[in-house]
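Following the same procedure, the fold was encoded as tokens, giving this record:
***
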Amino acid sequence: MLYIIILITGVVFLSRLFYLQVIDESFARLSEDNAIKVVYDYPQRGYVFDRNGELLVSNQPSYDVMAIPRNVKAFDTAEICRILMITPKELISRLDKAKIYSPRLPSIIVPQLNKSEYAYLQEKMRNYTGFYIQKRSLRDYQTHNGSNILGYIAEVNKKIIDNNPYYISGDLIGKQGIEGQYEELLRGVKGVKYIQKDRFNRDIGAFKGGIYDTLPKKGKDITLTIDAELQAYGEKLMENKWGGIVAIEPATGEILSLVTAPSYDPALLVGRQRSANFTKLYYDTISRPLYDRGLLAEYPPGSPFKTMNALIALQEGVVTTEDKFYCNMGYTYGRGRKMGCHRHPTPLSMIPGIAQSCNAYFANVYRRIIEKYPSPQQGMDAWANHVKSFGLGEFLGTDLPTGKSGKIPTSDYYNKIYDYPTYKWYSTATLSNAIGQGEVLMTPIQLANMTAAISNKGWFYTPHILKEIEGQKIKEKEYTEKKYTSIDAKNFEPVIEGMHQVYKSGTASSLGIPGIEIAGKTGTAENFTKIGGKRIQLTDHSIFIAFAPVENPKIAIAVFVENGYWGGRYAGRIAGLMIEKYLKGTITRTDMETWILTHSLEEEYKKPYSGEPFRINQ
């Protein structure tokens, strides 16, 4: 019995020993944690080029001071803090944070040393057991423009680490713009090195001769649709002004320029001062330089929206191009209510009505659209469906990671406002929609896309900013398939001619560009805000849309200038200059250019307002 017990016990021990040493790898991994140091070799992010091959974003070397908390030994705190230019309190806090993350895994203690800091510290690293320096690349911006397009890179947070196993503490990730949208393309793939350590925790070479090591793979280079020269010029024109400019190539839907003002130099969000600079930009709640007005600001479109009502009226068959309406300095309706208008010849048909931007003409046109149907609800929904076919009232779906839907009201919206059926409403209750005021809101990119659709006589591509990946053109169906509006192609002809006459004899007759036939539309939008609970009217917004040349258009553009008085004053001049810059490469209307560059709206923006002057008529 004793021999049997000893034999059984021996078999059990041998079996368990075999399991632990051969089958179960948990102790092996634990041993490796103690004996092997994992070092990541970070790849260079992909380069970014503009549509003409101009380099916009490259890389520069950077060095992070890393620490493995459990390996850190006593060190001269004062010396390393002096070298790294941080306080002892900050150093201790970062080490404690690293220990909480993982005592065995490396964490960044001080990121993004420059070359001189690295060279000085490298000589002294032998005095700091548990610390080492890791090389990586930071963005090197070759342009001072387009920060809203390019975005920036920043350190990952815990939420990102928990949701994506690729990232570890201290990794950098793209934020906003194309850096965020195309992170997986641009970031590349990290390489890994396994370093063997001896019992004294000293590095003794590559683990198993480096058979498990991998090399980093550089991120993919991408080409944007942006014209860097046009972008820089647009930002120059918008200095000391707030608003947005969006220019699109109608034939492709490629975004040529996406300007938001005010903006900032993308280099501010690189290096050790990134955090301080970002905080300063973030807390500027007045001018809001981090806010992309081209994609996010929702404005009333004003008179450019009259082109939409003209198209719908022709499609619905409620007017002809020859029908004329009288204007007595405005349109009177209801109980003594009047929609004012400026002085111009009367009566007017459609083409001169567009050219002269007659409010009375479009009030009549709008009422005919709504009143064609048995009820205002049906008329309103028919009108809204036409408008939405142009990509309005909903997020366009661009390949940028942000955007707003704007607002196109429907019958449901007005039924709630007027508590229908308790109180009935009619076409006159929504008459401001006739001139792009009222409840209609649009972002600059939506208005630019609407302009592109008009120039194409009824179709558009979803606007996008990525042109090529490693020299290969994008093939996504979303950006290469035409989208058609609900308006027949034949109905665009008179509207385009009306927009052409805006430059020939209408409200932009003084803004023409020699040698370029342009179709455009001026716009002035009333600007209200609430101060102390009271509705206050501020200086009107200046709005302009245009495309050129009229035949075979190469550029469609929308310009919003907040508090810019009227359409031709600021936005009209800027639109003309942008068109000439893109099509000719030079400026002949130096008179307009000088005027724009020497006029500022900073005094307008110092007036009291609620913080969101672009959300009006609410």
